[in-house]
Design goal:
Strands 3-2-1-4-16 form a five-stranded parallel β-sheet, with helices on both faces. Strands 6-14-7-8-9 form a five-stranded parallel β-sheet. By secondary structure, the protein is α/β, with parallel strands linked by helices. It is built from 19 helices and 16 strands. The radius of gyration is 24 Å and the shape is globular. α4 runs antiparallel to α5. The protein has three domains: 114 residues, Orthogonal Bundle (Fumarate Reductase Iron-sulfur Protein, Chain B, domain 2); 176 residues, FAD/NAD(P)-binding domain (3-Layer(bba) Sandwich), CATH 3.50.50.60; 149 residues, FAD/NAD(P)-binding domain (3-Layer(bba) Sandwich). β8, α16 and β9 form a beta-alpha-beta unit. This is Glutamate synthase (NADPH/NADH) small chain.
Length: 483
């Protein structure tokens, strides 16, 4: 036991990478935490108890080999740790940055249950993969032997990029079609740089391009080609568009200028971060500088918006949420970060109207109280009579989540079946839609979810598509022989 590098959780306390001071990080869009140094990564990895049944892996959607690469890190075998981490994930350094580890791996760490504080798994994962990029251990994408078949992937988010990578390695010609001018989906335009710096995403995309994957940017299915036209061009198609239709508020004045959608606001900010000209920043319509900002919502998108507004120089930033802190769906770490940076949370409060005619001037709100649990088990908020008042606002950002777009209409494919929620209906044994040879994965199937689940879905659908394509090739070969 004396030589055992692990099980150090009793004598070594939990530690995360040092966060930059709030006043410093609130002035830029750089990531808020510094990376571990080698000694600290090894020290924190050595706290792992090496469980016989590792709940951290069980509760990771990718079932990453977490205890194994923690041990390799503790032993100083970083390249092996990276290679093991890379076996199950196409984007480990991205997951290390943005996964809600407190709800997944770290939240189910055994030593967390014993009161010693979880192993800081996400920070170690980020460190070993960033080190791999720095040291040149991340190998180029090498295509497999050509199969003579091609695949079209609609959507360049985490699910689509994961499938594109695996199918390219299997030898298929892969084309990725995306509506944006840069690949990455919400990784690029939805998540702010202070959580995920964009060069981290772009180097992943460049690796795929260098491996021969063809990207068609600013390409909208339905406008530039119908789904049927893509089916004719490719041997199989994957729909991995994600969900982009913002949920709205039904309240008087919601259409007033200055009441904007969260994704529009975040996209404009991220485009500015790339150095693009952003007309909505030039005219001030999507810029928080000098304004009283009110963000409505309690999820991670709302946290992205309030923290972006702080960095844009808002006069004040308030986040309205109709439940209390304990019932908030967003990460508690993000709430703490936002509070440190100067965001004010207004709990148990909901909007009832938006004031102003030429431009929004305020949000009329009512206090809420929690009643009996609803169907989801959460206590339902109820208005508290007589509590209405107005909050001053020059910019109101609606961050209420996302629903699927009407893909059958947009894609010109009315035979594409959807569920009552608007997500694509698939045969869960094959992940194929109602249209032969057209598969679907990610949020467009499961609804708005986590990046790590999109990667998992992209990994899973690869197997089904590969099986389908092999069967198609075999059938075609049989027809040629018979002829």
């Amino acid at each position: 036991m004396g030589d055992n590098p692990m099980l150090k959780f009793v004598g070594t306390g939990q530690a995360y990478p040092e966060k930059r001071p709030a006043q410093d990080r609130a002035d830029d869009f750089l990531e808020i935490s510094r990376s571990f140094i080698l000694d600290k990564a090894e020290e924190q990895a050595s706290r792992c108890s090496q469980c016989g049944v590792p709940y951290c892996s069980t509760h990771c959607p990718l079932h990453n080999h977490i205890p194994d690469w923690l041990r390799l890190t503790a032993e100083g075998r970083l390249r092996e740790a990276y290679e093991l981490s890379n076996l199950t994930s196409t984007m480990p350094e991205i997951c290390g940055r943005i996964c809600p580890q407190d709800r997944l791996c770290e939240g189910n760490c055994v030593i967390e249950f014993s009161g010693h504080g979880a192993v800081t798994i996400g920070s170690v994962e980020k460190y070993i993969t960033d080190t791999a990029w720095k040291e040149g251990w991340v190998e180029p994408l090498v295509p497999g032997s050509p199969t003579g078949q091609s695949v079209g992937v609609i959507g360049a988010g985490p699910a689509g990029l994961t499938t594109a990578e695996y199918l390219r390695v299997a030898g298929y010609e892969v084309h990725v079609y995306d509506r944006h001018d840069r690949a990455g989906g919400l990784l690029t335009y939805g998540i702010p740089g202070f959580k995920l710096e964009k060069d981290v995403v772009m180097r992943r995309v460049q690796r795929l391009k260098d491996g021969g994957i063809v990207f068609h940017q600013s390409f909208e299915v339905g406008r530039d080609a119908t789904l049927e036209e893509l089916r004719q061009k490719h041997d199989a198609v994957l729909i991995a568009t994600g969900v982009y239709k913002p949920r709205d508020i039904k309240a008087p004045g919601v259409g007033a200028p200055g009441v904007v959608k969260a994704l529009d606001y975040l996209t404009a900010s991220n485009k500015a971060g790339f150095g693009d000209a952003v007309p909505e920043h030039e005219d001030g319509s999507l810029l928080a500088a000098g304004k009283n900002v009110v963000v409505i919502g309690g999820g991670d998108t709302a946290m992205d918006c309030v923290r972006t507004a702080i960095r844009q120089g808002a006069k004040s930033v308030k986040c309205l949420y109709r439940r209390d802190r304990e019932n908030m769906p967003g990460s508690q770490r993000e709430v703490a970060n936002a509070e440190e940076e100067g965001v004010e949370f207004v709990w148990l409060t909901a909007p009832v109207a938006f004031e102003g005619t030429e431009h929004v001037t305020g949000v009329k709100v009512t206090k809420m109280r929690l009643g009996s649990p609803d169907a989801s088990g959460r206590r339902a908020p109820e208005p508290d009579p007589g509590s209405e008042h107005t909050l001053e606002a020059d910019l109101v950002i609606k961050a209420l989540g996302y629903d699927p777009e009407e893909l059958p209409r947009l894609f010109g494919s009315e035979d594409l079946s959807v569920t009552r929620w608007g997500t694509l209906r698939v045969d869960h044994r094959t992940m194929m839609t109602s249209v032969d040879g057209v598969f679907a994965a990610g949020d467009i199937v499961r609804g708005a979810s986590l990046v790590v689940w999109a990667i998992r879905d992209g990994r899973d659908v690869t197997e089904h598509m590969h099986r389908y394509l092999k069967a198609q090739a075999k059938a075609a070969a049989g027809e040629r022989v018979a002829a």
